[in-house]
Amino acid sequence: MKYGSEKRNLCLFFIMAFAWSWLLWLPEVLWDLRLYLAPFGPTIAAFILTYMSEGLDGTKRLLGRGLDFRFGKVWLIPIFLLMPAIVGFSLLLAILSGEPAPEIAVLSQPWVIIPAFFYILFLGGPVEEEFGWRGYALDRLQMYYNALISSVIIGIIWGLWHLPLFFMPRQEMYYNVPIWGFILGTVLFSIIFTWVYNNTGKSILAVLLLHTTGNLSHFIFPLNTTKLGGLYSLILNIIVVIIILIIWGPEKMTRTQKKRLKIEDST
Length: 267
Fold this sequence. Notes:
Helix content: over 70%
Domain CAAX prenyl protease 2/Lysostaphin resistance protein A-like: 115-216
Low-confidence stretches: 257-267
Shape: globular
Pfam families: Rce1-like (PF02517)
Organism: Methanothermobacter tenebrarum
GO biological process, one term: proteolysis
Keywords: Hydrolase, Membrane, Metalloprotease, Protease, Transmembrane, Transmembrane helix
Number of helices: 11
Oligomer: single chain
């Protein structure tokens, strides 16, 4: 693989992802006219660049990584439970701090969780973004930097990519969040996503599911209706990231890498 060309492709990816999404988000910012293809910028950029450099076979491989379930099933535990635990516990802490308990609508209609899961998977962020952020950009960044630095770079860019949403009339969720706090959050999420991605053999499907459960958690637990819930969530994410870096290390964020380093040190 030619590293120089991959660095160029990485720059092209970010330019294309931003150009596609920001241009198609502009009508919603100006006239409240939603174009549903706008968030697909990262995934579309990834597939276009993959086809240009690797042809149809490379494009099929990229798509296949989003369907491949061959990773350690123990990782389904953090994939499906970590984000709901963080968001749910953050809401509980906000309530224990004296805030009124918000209505959790799904308690009366739990069946809506399944259709909500699939709606979020395909139209709520994961499929629109993860083939790009993790499946394309993260792989190339990790050619030059360790897992932690690569995650921070993507986290900052990922956060900045969302900026137009802060100016859209129907995106109430972003009105109550300071931009700096949101970007800090995407950096922390990016580290967690890299941890899962690297430990599942760079499975795009794994991060698709993780992204879905993360967004679904906010659908189930209305954290943004509280004043302190976001702060508690930020603190809990920082704690999780610190634990990940201590146990798995910043280089690859995998236990295999940690074991290999211990063996080298002992010799």
